[in-house]
Design a protein that fits this description.
Length: 768
C-alpha cells in the first residue's frame, strides 16, 4: 500500500482512538482557563494580577448563562471581587489580599482575543502576544515552539523553512531583534536552523512587533521578537519530563521560600545515538547541498555525529512587596562531526574530517523597584556571547581550513515608568551597549591567517507617552529613540508611533509608523564558508564597505470583530536603506560584488478568522512587491528582491474540546526569484554568464500539515500528554532555492534546495 496512504490512515486511527477515550467526568478547571473562554464568548477583557487567580479552580459554567450570571457565580465560588467597569472591561481583585497590591496601570490592552487560536492576542499597539499557558494547537506543531508560532502570523514567513531565517515583511533574518529575557540572541535555531533553540516548556510569553515598535527597543530594522519566562512566583513546585523523535527534555519550578523560586529547563538530542525518521528528514534537508555532500565522488565510508542541547535557568526573588530581582542564564549548543573517505575525480582516495560548532551563552539580571504609587524604576544588565567555528581537514592533501565568527554583546538599560493617571503613562530611559565581532581564518598548504576584531559602543536615550481618551476609544503611543554610535560618530533620531481608534463596537482603525537603525548585520563572504551550512557571519558597520542600516515604515489597518468573527486588512510601506550586496547572499552574477543599496516593499496583509464553539478556522493572505535598488548593480535599475514572495496564503482549521486538540493546515506561496544562466555561454571563460538578475521564479510552494494532542490525568498529581504530527503530509517536493555551479569540465550544474519531505513526529510528556 502507498506509504502516504498508510501514514494518513495511521494518523486518522490515532485521532479516532484518542477522541473516543478522552471523555471523562467533568472536573474543575483552572480559573485562568475559564477566563480565556469567557473573554472569547462574551468579547470582554478581564484585568487582574496573575498571582491573584493562581491555584484557583472552578467547575465550567453552562453555555446558556449570561455574562452577569457567570460573574455572580464566580463571586460566590472564589475569594475574589469582580467589578464590571463597562461593556468591555472587568477587573478581578482579591477580597482580602495577603499583601499590598501596587498596580502600575498598563495601557497596552488586548483588542483581539484568540487571534488565530487560543493563547494568541493582538494589542492596541499592533503587537501580537502569545501566552504559552493558554496556547492550544497549530497545524504541524505538537510543542509550543515560539519561532514556529510566529510564522503563522500574516507578513511573517521563512522562505526556506528555517527558523533561523525568519523573514518579516521582506526583511532578512539578521534584521530581526530577538530578545530572550532581555538578552539579544545571535543564534535562534538548533539543527542549524530547523528547530527553535528556545525551550518551549519554559518560555511563557512571546511579543512580536512588526511596526510601531516601542522606543525602548533599538538596533533592528525589521521586527522585534521578545521572549519571556514566568515573572510571578507560584509558591508551588512542579516538574515535567518529555521527549519526541529528536530530543528529550525536562523542566522544574522549585519554590525555595515565600520570596524565592528557581526555574530550570534543559533539552538534549539523542541523534548521536539513535536515528529516527524525523532525524533523516532534517539531516537530508540541511546537508543535501552543503560542501559535505560529495555527490560527484565515490564515497567509501561515512561517519557522522550530530547533537544539540540547551539549558536555561531563572531565579525569581521578591525582595519585598515593591522590589523584585530576576536573574537569567542560558546556554545553547550545536555540534557536528562529519568524517568521510571517498575517491576523488583524480581516482585518489581522500579522507576528510569536518567539525562544526555553534554555541551561545547569555545572562541577564533585572531589578525593579516601585518608588511610590504609580512610579516604577527598572534596571537591566545583560551579556550575550555567540561563537560559530568550523574545521575542515583533508588528511590526504595535508590541508586544513579553520574559520570562526564570534560576537560578544553586553550592556545595561535603566528606565522610569510614571503612571500619571489611569489614562496616561510616561516612560523615560537610557541604554548602553558594546558589541564586538571577531572573524578568524586559518588555512594551511598554502599558509594564510587572518584575524579581525571590531567594536562599536552605543549610547541611547528614549522616551514615549501613552495616552488614552476618557472614553477609552482612542489611544496613542508616541515616542523617540536617540542613539549615538561612537565608532561611527553618527547620531540617529528615530521617532515611533502607534495609534488605535475604536470607530464602532465592531470596527477599529490602526496606524503605525517607525524609523529604525541597525549597527550589526550578517554577510556571506563565500557560499562554502562554514561547510556551506551556516555560511552567514556577523559583521559590524564600519562607515565604508558596511554602513549603518536604516529603515522607515508606515502601515494602516482596519479590523472588524464581532460574534467571534475577525476580519482585518492592513497595508504597509517599508524601505530599508544602506544594505550591502553581501548581506543578501546573492548566488548569481553579483555573488562576488559588493555594493550599497536598498530594498522597498509594499504590501497588504489580510486575515479572516471565525471561531465557533470548539472550532477555529482562519485564512490569511499577503500580497507584496519587494525590489532592490543598487546604483552599481543591474545598471542601476530595480530588480526583484531574492526574498520577494508576491503571494502568500495559508488556511487552517483547529478543533479543541476538553483534553483533545487537532489542527489541519495548508500553506501556499508563489516561488521566490532566481537567476538563470544565459543561453549563449562563452566557452573561453570558466565562469557562468547570467541573464538579468532574478529574472525567473521557482514553482509555487505547497505544504499540508496535521497535528493532534491528547492529555489526561494519569494519577491525581500526574498529567500526561501525547502528541503526533506530520509536516508535509503528502510529501510534496518543494524547491526553496535554485542556483548554478560549474563542474570540473566547465559544464553548468543546476542545484535545487528542497524543503523538508514528509516528516512525522511523536511526543510524550509527563507533568507532576
Amino acid at each position: 500500500m502507498n506509504k502516504k496512504l498508510l501514514s494518513l490512515i495511521f494518523f486518522i486511527l490515532s485521532i479516532t482512538f484518542c477522541n473516543r477515550t478522552h471523555c471523562q467526568e467533568q472536573e474543575k478547571q483552572p480559573l485562568a482557563q475559564i477566563i480565556l473562554s469567557l473573554e472569547e464568548k462574551f468579547n470582554v477583557k478581564f484585568s487582574y494580577e496573575t498571582k491573584a487567580i493562581e491555584n484557583i479552580k472552578v467547575i465550567p459554567f453552562s453555555d446558556n448563562l449570561t455574562l452577569k450570571q457567570v460573574i455572580e457565580q464566580l463571586k460566590q465560588s472564589t475569594p475574589l471581587h469582580f467589578e464590571i467597569l463597562n461593556d468591555r472591561f472587568i477587573t478581578i481583585t482579591p477580597i482580602q489580599p495577603t499583601e499590598p497590591i501596587h498596580r502600575i496601570q498598563k495601557l497596552e490592552e488586548v483588542v483581539v482575543v484568540n487571534y488565530l487560536t487560543k493563547g494568541i492576542s493582538k494589542t492596541n499597539y499592533g503587537t501580537i502576544e502569545a501566552d504559552k499557558k493558554a496556547f492550544e494547537i497549530l497545524p504541524g506543531l505538537i510543542e509550543p515552539d515560539v519561532l514556529q508560532i510566529v510564522q503563522n502570523l500574516p507578513g511573517i514567513i521563512s522562505v526556506d523553512e528555517r527558523i533561523s531565517n525568519i523573514n518579516v515583511r521582506g526583511g532578512t533574518n539578521d534584521q530581526n531583534l530577538v530578545l530572550y529575557e532581555g538578552i539579544r540572541m545571535y543564534q535562534s535555531g538548533h539543527f542549524f536552523g530547523l528547530i527553535s533553540a528556545f525551550n518551549p516548556y519554559l518560555s511563557e510569553n512571546i511579543t512580536v512587533s512588526k511596526n510601531g515598535t516601542s522606543a525602548k527597543y533599538g538596533n533592528a530594522v525589521s521586527s522585534t521578537i521578545a521572549i519571556q519566562n514566568t515573572e510571578e512566583l507560584n509558591h508551588t513546585s512542579s516538574a515535567g519530563l518529555g521527549g519526541n523523535m529528536l530530543s528529550v527534555d525536562g523542566f522544574a519550578k522549585i519554590s525555595l521560600s515565600k520570596k524565592v523560586e528557581l526555574l530550570l529547563a534543559t533539552r538534549r538530542s539523542y541523534t548521536d545515538l539513535i536515528v529516527s525518521k524525523t532525524y533523516d528528514s532534517y539531516f537530508d534537508r540541511i546537508f543535501r547541498d552543503s560542501e559535505l555532500n560529495t555527490s560527484n565522488t565515490t564515497r567509501l565510508a561515512l561517519d557522522e555525529r550530530f547533537l544539540f542541547y540547551d539549558f536555561n535557568a531563572k531565579l525569581l526573588y521578591n525582595i519585598d512587596s515593591s522590589t523584585k530581582l530576576r536573574v537569567n542564564l542560558l546556554n545553547m549548543y550545536n555540534n557536528l562531526d562529519y568524517n568521510q573517505v571517498f575517491i576523488n575525480q583524480d581516482n585518489d582516495i581522500e579522507e576528510t574530517n569536518s567539525v562544526l560548532n555553534q554555541v551561545s551563552y547569555g545572562a541577564s539580571a533585572n531589578f525593579s523597584k516601585q518608588l511610590k504609587q504609580g512610579l516604577l524604576l527598572s534596571t537591566q544588565i545583560y551579556y550575550s556571547n555567540y561563537d560559530l567555528d568550523a574545521k575542515n581537514h583533508n588528511i590526504t592533501r595535508h590541508q586544513q581550513l579553520e574559520q570562526e565568527n564570534k560576537v560578544e554583546d553586553y550592556g545595561f538599560r535603566i528606565d522610569v515608568l510614571n503612571s500619571i493617571n489611569s489614562n496616561l503613562n510616561v516612560n523615560l530611559g537610557y541604554q548602553f551597549n558594546e558589541v564586538g565581532v571577531t572573524n578568524f581564518e586559518d588555512v594551511t598548504n598554502p599558509n594564510f591567517t587572518s584575524l579581525k576584531k571590531e567594536i562599536i559602543r552605543t549610547h541611547a536615550v528614549f522616551g514615549e507617552v501613552e495616552r488614552y481618551s476618557k472614553s477609552r476609544n482612542t489611544n496613542l503611543r508616541f515616542g523617540a529613540r536617540i542613539s549615538y554610535f561612537g565608532k561611527l560618530k553618527e547620531l540617529i533620531i528615530e521617532p515611533r508611533f502607534a495609534f488605535n481608534q475604536k470607530l464602532t463596537d465592531q470596527f477599529r482603525l490602526e496606524i503605525l509608523g517607525e524609523l529604525k537603525s541597525q549597527e550589526i548585520t550578517q554577510i556571506t563572504d563565500l557560499q562554502q564558508d562554514f561547510l556551506g551550512i551556516e555560511k552567514r557571519r556577523w559583521q559590524l558597520a564600519n562607515n565604508s564597505t558596511i554602513p549603518l542600516v536604516k529603515s522607515q515604515q508606515i502601515s494602516a489597518g482596519l479590523s472588524y470583530n464581532q460574534n467571534n468573527l475577525l476580519v482585518s486588512l492592513e497595508a504597509y510601506y517599508k524601505n530599508v536603506g544602506s544594505i550591502t550586496a553581501q548581506s543578501q547572499a546573492f548566488q548569481n552574477q553579483f555573488q562576488f560584488n559588493n555594493d550599497i543599496g536598498s530594498y522597498t516593499i509594499k504590501g497588504i496583509d489580510f486575515l479572516v478568522n471565525k471561531r465557533l464553539q470548539n472550532f477555529s478556522t482562519w485564512l490569511s493572505y499577503s500580497y507584496s512587491k519587494n525590489e532592490y535598488h543598487f546604483e552599481n548593480l543591474n545598471n542601476g535599475n530595480a530588480f526583484s528582491n531574492t526574498l520577494d514572495l508576491q503571494h502568500v496564503a495559508n488556511t487552517s482549521l483547529t478543533y479543541s474540546k476538553n483534553n483533545f486538540k487537532v489542527g489541519f493546515g495548508i500553506n501556499w506561496h508563489s516561488g521566490r526569484p532566481y537567476t538563470t544562466p544565459s543561453i549563449a555561454q562563452n566557452n573561453n571563460n570558466a565562469v557562468i554568464e547570467y541573464d538579468a538578475p532574478n529574472n525567473a521564479r521557482l514553482p509555487s510552494y505547497f505544504r499540508t500539515d496535521i497535528s493532534a494532542i491528547y492529555n489526561f490525568q494519569l494519577t491525581k498529581d500526574i498529567k500526561t500528554e501525547i502528541g503526533a504530527s506530520i509536516w508535509n503530509l503528502f510529501n510534496q517536493t518543494n524547491i526553496v532555492n535554485r542556483y548554478y555551479s560549474l563542474n570540473a569540465d566547465d559544464t553548468i550544474t543546476e542545484i535545487n534546495n528542497r524543503s523538508l519531505k514528509l516528516t512525522p513526529n511523536i511526543s510524550l510528556r509527563i507533568n507532576f
